[in-house]
Amino acid sequence: MNDRKHIGYIENGINLDHIPHGNAWYVMKILNLFNSHSQAGIGLNLPSKKLGSKDLIKIENRVLTQNEIDAISLFCTGSTLSIIKDFKVIDKFILELPKVVHDVIVCPNKRCVSHQHVSKFNTFVNRKDITIVKCHYCEKEFNIEDISQYKF
Amino acid sequence: MQGLISIADLDKNKINEILKLSKLFKDGLRKKTLDGKVIASCFFENSTRTRLSFESAVVHLGGSTIGFADSSATSLATKGESLADTFKILSCYADALIIRHPLDGSARLASEICDIPVINAGDGANQHPTQTLLDLFSIMDSQGRLEGIKLGIMGDLKFGRTVHSLVEAVKWFGMQLYFIAPKHLRMGDEELFNLKTSGIQYSFHNSLDEVAHELDCLYLTRLQKERFVDEVISDTYKVNLASLANVKPNFKILHPLPRQEELPVEIDNTPYAYYFEQAQNGLYVRQALLDILFTNGSID
Question: What interface predicted TM-score (ipTM) does this complex get?
Answer without folding.
Answer: 0.86
